[in-house]
Amino acid sequence: MSEQDYQVLLVTDNDQDARFLEYALRKDSRATFVPLRAQDMDEAMKLLATRPIDAVVLDSALPDTNCVETCLKIHSSDATMPIIATQETAEEDQAKDILTAGAQDVLLKQDCAGGNLSRAIRYAVKRAQAVRDLSASESLLQSVLQNVNEGVIVAGRNEKLLLVNPAARELLGIGSAAGLPTDIFGMYEPDTVTRIRDRERPMARAIRGEVLNDLEIFHRNPNAPNGRFLSVSGRPLKDAAGNITGGIVSFRDVTGRKRVEDELAHLSLHDGLTGIPNRAFFLETLRKSVARARRAESRVAVLLLVLDRFKQINDRLGHEFGDALLVDVARRLTDGLRAGDFVARLGGDEFVILFENFGHDEHAAGLADKITDVLAPVFRLEGQEVSVSASIGISTFPECGDDSGSLMKTADVAMYRAKESGRNTYHFYSRSVHAEMSRRSQLEADLREAMRHDHFDLEYQPIADLRNGRITAVEALLRWNHPDHGQVRPLEFIPILEATGLMNRVGEWVLASACAQVKEWQRTLNRPDLGIAVNLSYQQLLHRRIVDQVHRILTNAGLEASMLTLEINEATVLENPRMVREQLHLLSGEGVKISLDDFGTGYSSLQAIRQLPLSSIKVDRSLVMSLPTDPEDVAVVDAVLRFAEDLGLDVIAEGVEAQAQLDFLAERGCSLGQGYLISPPLPVAAVDGFVSTNWRAA
Ligand code: C2E
Ligand code: MG
Ligand code: MG
Questions:
Q1: 655 close to ligand 1 (CB < 6 Angstrom)
Q2: 160 and 238 within one domain
Q3: 566 C-alpha to ligand 1 centroid (Å)
Q4: Which terminus of the chain is more exposed, N or C, with fewer CB under 10 A?
Q5: Mean pLDDT lowest among 129-138, 233-242, 407-416
Q6: Bond preceding residue 398 cis, omega within 30 of 0
Q7: Residue where a domain stops, chosen among 144, 176, 205
Q8: Could you tell me if 100 and 234 lie in one domain?
Q9: What is the CATH number of the domain that holds 321?
């Protein structure tokens, strides 16, 4: 069985020789030879051009040309065509010339038989094929190296450059004509301008046997004056025996990708609205700062800052205005503080400042003062002016916590404390604050529990007509019976309900229960004129659906709107006069009455009060308390009574505890009173008796 077919062109003008050669070729077990005949060089060239010929057997004595020329001619059209020449007699000089001209072998005609010619052809073809394969792969390699975008550099053991492809020249900024500089990897570490040390250069490492993958390097050159990022890979070059003979380094431009990555990194570390560092960035910076401070035994302070009443500003002037304000606040903070103070936005209206390397608490306090000053001037935005203040909580390392998490937590606790103690102030974290805050967060959890299990209750405090002792209304007061602490004061838990957003739900329950209850009393006590007063928190008042809610509750209870008085305390009105005014007008449009509670504790102008749709004013207990001895309070109460009379408003004196107070009020014409002297707040069961017997001034 033959392995392969060989198309062999026999070039000879001698028919006898031709037949002999054909015969010689027939005797080979390894291959099948298909002979073709050409009489002379011309005919040979034509056949070579048109037929798939594997080898040429050439008679050294041709009529039209000599053998050397024929060899050259054939190779000029196909450089790898195997040629075996035959000689009549051994002529060494001619044989040499023929071999030099490119023939693979020169045989004596008489030696051609016996498998010699066929073997010579087989070897020649194989060699030619190998040469072809080699040159094909070499040119393939060359064209790959010429055309890839990847820079490729090959160097010998001593870093002598063996190959630098065009992409490498372009990326490294080496002109093709210019000689190669000795240090073509004048590379830099990313993020720094530190030149990479010689031993660390990729080529040096590859030659040492290291395999490098996607090493990022910053490289500056005349083609890229601003520098570019290269991702570099490298590996050693080895010979067949596995010895390192050099190194190969390839690299590509990843500047675009890097830029996108950097941008993403920037985005993930900065606040989208204000552009200043965000929470993640801050926490990371704080973590490092704490680690440094621990080593250096220095101090770090975290100043957590929340804008006072930002929510109201947002509600009143719109979110866009709120956003613009936050941007301005961020700018003032970053511009107004030292470059070393790290300012970040935690989200919402919360900002945080990292303060390093300070000695005494006074320094941190000084920074808090500075923040207050920076925020003090009014903000002018979109034709509006607003004032902004901040409550600041301060925690310090190592006193308040020994990691970033606990520093943030303690600063938060201190911030709440600052907020509670009147806003626009700062507070240092301390253990007592902590104890209080944990009680508070415990209360918060308990409140949620209380809501689930209906642990709330109402008491009703009668309001009496001071002239005839008749009970005109009762005020519903929320009660929480805590399983462990017993009765918790409303003033302690209502702010928590407000802060956690739970007040709306509880408030709705209060309204519904109180309205249903008073309706029942109206029937059972036959007192259809008995009114009910319900306190409304700021949060409830500004709730979008409060008007609908009140309407629905009245309908469900079957209670006439005029029987319900909603008490709004003076502080609420001061928070956001315009919004409050609008909401109150809507509510009074439903027919319910509005009463201004705790009057005299704030500083609302009588002018502002005039614009509210009020039906009564409740004079705060603090004013009533010192009647009739304190002349100042006497004057105030007098003024309120006159003012109320002018506007046709009822006045209710709160917290009447002593007969002297009552006498004074009655004498000055105050028509209504409420207080322990008349009755403390009563549980439901006790109200019936009290209302029906009528209270009488002694
Ligand atoms: P307020 O509306 O001014 O209610 C009067 C408060 O004074 C009640 O305190 C009442 O128990 C107390 N009080 C009445 N007469 C006297 C007196 O002669 N002497 C003294 N020392 N105190 C007297 P309470 O029940 O602790 O409520 C405190 C505040 O909590 C209320 O003040 C009101 O602002 C708020 N509140 C109570 N219930 C609710 C509610 O259901 N919703 C809302 N939003 N707030 C409520
Ligand atoms: Mg009240
Ligand atoms: Mg009050």
A1: yes
A2: yes
A3: 14
A4: N
A5: 129-138
A6: yes
A7: 144
A8: no
A9: 3.30.70.270
**In terms of domains, do 469 and 617 share one?**
yes
Pocket test for ligand 1, best of 459, 460, 477, 654 (most atoms within 8 A of CB): 477
Q: Do 560 and 681 reside in the same domain of the chain?
A: yes
Are 238 and 282 in the same domain? no
Predicted pLDDT at 177: 54
Q: Closest Cα partner for 511 from 497, 494, 532?
A: 532
CATH number, domain containing residue 105 = 3.40.50.2300
CATH number at residue 191: 3.30.450.20
In this structure, are 466 and 596 located in the same domain?
yes
Q: What residue spans of 297-347 are helical by DSSP H?
A: 310-317, 319-336
Burial class (CB in 10 A: 0-12, 13-18, 19+), 212: middle
Most confident of 308-312, 539-543, 574-578, 652-656: 652-656
User: Would 454 be classed as within a structural domain?
Assistant: no
Which sign, positive or negative, has the C-alpha torsion 615, 620, 625, 627?
A: negative
Q: Is 597 in the pocket of ligand 1 (CB under 6 A)?
A: yes
> What is the per-residue pLDDT across 464-481, written as a single tens digit (0 to 9) for each?
999 889 999 999 999 998
Helical (H) or strand (E) element with 202: helix 202-207
Domain that holds residue 218: 148-260
In a domain, 440, yes or no: no
String of b and e for 661-676 (b: at least 16 CB within 10 Å)? bbebbeebebbbbbbe
For the chain, the domain total comes to 4
Q: Give 534 Cα–ligand 2 centroid separation in angstroms.
A: 7
pLDDT given for residue 113 in this prediction: 82
Average pLDDT (352-372) is 89
> ∠ CA 562-565-569 to the nearest 5 degrees?
155
Nearest 5°: the CA angle 312, 318, 323 is 90
Together in a domain, 201 and 222: yes
pLDDT grade for 47, boundaries at 50, 70 and 90: very high
Residue from 94, 90, 124 nearest 107 by CA: 90
- pLDDT tens by residue, 660-691: 999 999 999 999 999 999 999 999 999 998 88
| Distance of alpha carbon 649 from alpha carbon 197, whole angstroms | 88
Query: How far apart, in Å, are the Cα atoms of 352 and each of 302, 314, 369, 373?
Result: 7, 20, 14, 16
Strands (E), 348-438: 350-356, 379-381, 384-386, 390-397, 426-428
Instruction: Report the predicted TM-score, pTM, of the whole model to 2 decimal places.
Output: 0.50
CA dist 138 and 393 (Å) reads 73
Give yes or no: residues 423 and 466 share one domain: no
Test site for ligand 1: of 492, 535, 537, most ligand atoms within 8 A of the Cβ? 535
Separation in Å, CA 485 to CA 203, 443, 509? 75, 10, 23
pLDDT band at 81 (very low <50, low <70, confident <90, very high): very high
CB neighbours of 500 closer than 8 A, spacing ≥ 6?
A: 444, 447, 448
pLDDT given for residue 307 in this prediction: 94
